[in-house]
Amino acid sequence: DAGVIQSPRHEVTEMGQEVTLRCKPISGHDYLFWYRQTMMRGLELLIYFNNNVPIDDSGMPEDRFSAKMPNASFSTLKIQPSEPRDSAVYFCASRTSDRALGYTFGSGTRLTVV
Amino acid sequence: DAKTTQPPSMDCAEGRAANLPCNHSTISGNEYVYWYRQIHSQGPQYIIHGLKNNETNEMASLIITEDRKSSTLILPHATLRDTAVYYCIARSNFGNEKLTFGTGTRLTIIP
User: Fold this and answer.
1) For testing the chain B interface, which of A29, A43, A56, A104 should be mutated: the one with the most B CBs within 10 Å?
2) Residues of B in contact with A90 (CB under 8 A)
């Protein structure tokens, strides 16, 4: 299993541009999570899906952020328009329906907005 | 999730056992103890979890005190690749999905 796959690994964009981050969860995992990590705030849960349906998006910072999961093997996190304060590492994670087995995280996308 | 307290940093010689402590004195009966680690520039990695009994897997051992107020993660033969930030989390397997990682312990393996 290749694990959770995120792309791109690094993204540098100018303020105001649209940014799309991508995630492929582990096959068979029912849950998918988007986290953001910064030095100041640590790891924050942005949104999570169960069986492709968004369950809790209370962590999404603003309307500029949106996430979709059109099918079981793909999810996107979009920021439009991007701002410098969005600079962070964005992680995608997935897990099976058995929460006790833990979460598998991807390698992350390091986003820099200049 | 119950609050956990870990030392901010530790060093361990390569080849020796690394023992990472965690206090969770307010843990409730249905909360498990989970350990994750984050190696530089990578996503967090699940290591092990337990409820009451000691647990062992291919990565580590978890020792939980009888009163469940503290635990120790043991890496039996630490290698340079074990240098990472280690997070201890106390949470139930129901309810809120949010993982609260805290500040963790930065473990440095010394050659």
Assistant:
1) A43
2) none
**Chain B residues closer than 8 Å to A105 by CB:** 43-45
d(CA B34, CA B63): 12
Nearest residue, CB atoms, A105 vs list B43, B94, B103: B43
Average pLDDT value for residue range A43-60: 94
Residue B78, pLDDT score: 96
Q: What is the pLDDT of residues B40-73, one digit of tens each?
A: 989 999 999 999 989 999 999 999 999 999 999 9
Alpha-carbon span A17 to A37, nearest angstrom = 21
DSSP annotation string for B88-111:
EEEEESSS-------S-EEEEEE-
Residue B50 has a pLDDT of: 94
